[in-house]
Write a structure and sequence with these properties.
The chain has 387 residues and is α/β, with parallel strands linked by helices. The protein contains 12 helices and 25 strands. It is elongated. The structure holds MU-OXO-diiron. The site of MU-OXO-diiron (FEO) has 9 residues, from α2.
Length: 387
């Protein structure tokens, strides 16, 4: 396994995780990469490492460029183990390498490994390795408290770690070697599932990045941005500000089809009002895929049949995941059918209210099988609620 040159004196030496399909609950249909970069200069610098099981792959790629014992600095932009996991393996070979991190990174690395010294750097502090100067900028909560990004001049490369990343495995590492629609979709999904709760912090980081002359953004997951830097920056601009499309998601599960019929009656209203909608039955749709759409949707309709005085487990899981991602409030409606009791729609409504979502109306419930008149009334009611 060889390194891939991305710029003069800079090579990608990371690992490609073709098999990854779940990243702590996030379904990664296209696998992922753990990107690490080697910068050759008077002093040799490694920027980030890889997940521990890929340590040999990292060392093999480094060895295709230079003897790994010659590494002088390991810049750890982020202590999460998908990027720091191989630091101990590298230090076994590069015995005198100095590990550099933010102060929160120093603490986190000590708590995770406790086996090597770390030099903490302030935001704005620089490191000169000969020809190159690295400037560190703290970007806390994008997506852990310790995150920082590293900007290299000359070269104008931003090593952005999680920011601008995508869970996307590919044989070719540059953006222009991959389908732009796919990588931008994966970048949006990544933001929705990883960064969304920290949008205010991401906005600050984005503002800092936009001020820099940039030739490349070399993140820690997925491809390296070069040709499509304007596209990824404009996508982030929309995401950090919570920009919405005129779209609605009808997210639901149904026991015997009655809640499904309600969902379709709601979709008729949306169609009549010119709102683009997506019917997302939770039996057939993955929660982390739905989050990519939640990010920019204007309306959320969430439904469940009542089951044992509660809601269906798929809907409970969706609400739990949504709550953790705590994004910008959306207009919502809770709905569902029931046989007796009928608590389902109310439970959804309470959960959505606890997330500071904005109700379009009281929860809507229909007993047993809705007839045509009930469905028509639901369609008309929803039409009256949509702007
Ligand atoms: Fe890719 Fe927050 O780690």
């Amino acid at each position: 396994m060889k390194a891939i040159k991305i710029s003069e004196n800079v090579t990608w030496v990371g690992a490609t995780d073709w098999k990854l399909r779940n990243f702590h609950g996030y379904t990664t249909h296209r696998g992922s990469t753990y990107n690490a970069y080697l910068v050759l200069d008077k002093k040799v610098t490694l920027i980030d490492t890889v997940k521990a099981p890929f340590s040999d792959e990292l060392l093999e790629r480094i060895s295709s460029v230079i003897d790994p014992s010659k590494i002088d600095y390991i810049i750890s932009n982020h202590a999460e183990p998908d990027h720091s996991g191989a630091i101990p393996a590298v230090l076994k070979v590069a015995k005198n390498a100095n590990v550099i991190a933010s102060p929160n990174g120093e603490r986190a690395l000590n708590e995770i490994f406790g086996s090597f010294p770390v030099t903490a750097v302030k935001s704005g502090e620089t490191l000169c390795t000969g020809k190159y100067t690295f400037t560190f900028t703290h970007t806390p909560m994008v997506h852990w408290p310790d995150n920082m990004v590293t900007y290299m001049t000359p070269g104008e490369i931003l090593f952005s770690n999680d920011a601008f990343g995508q869970h996307y495995a590919a044989s070719d590492i540059m953006d222009f070697e991959n389908d732009p629609a796919t990588i931008l979709y994966e970048a949006k999904k990544y933001y929705a599932n990883i960064v969304m709760p920290y949008s205010p912090q991401a906005k600050k980081a984005l503002d800092a990045v936009k001020a820099l002359p940039l030739k490349m953004i070399a993140g820690s997951h997925g491809i390296v941005w070069q040709k499509h830097i304007p596209d990824i920056l404009s996508l982030y601009e929309r995401m950090v500000t919570g920009a919405e499309d005129n779209t609605a998601l009808i997210v639901y599960d149904t026991m015997w089809g009655s809640t499904d019929r309600m969902a379709r009656a709601i979709s008729d209203a949306l169609k009549d009002k010119g709102v683009k909608y997506y019917l997302l039955d939770l039996k057939n749709n993955d929660i982390s895929d739905i989050m990519e759409q939640v990010l920019t949707a204007k309306y959320l309709f969430v439904g469940s049949s009542t089951l044992n005085n509660n809601i269906l487990p798929t809907v409970a899981a969706f609400l739990c995941y949504l709550k953790g991602l705590s994004h910008k409030p959306k207009k919502f409606m809770a709905f569902g059918s029931y046989g007796w009791g009928g608590q389902g729609a109310g439970i959804i409504n309470a959960e959505m209210l606890s997330m500071k979502m904005l109700p379009l109306c009281e929860p809507v419930k229909i007993k047993n099988v809705p007839d045509e008149a009930a469905l028509k009334a639901l369609t008309e009611a929803v039409k009256g609620l949509i702007e």
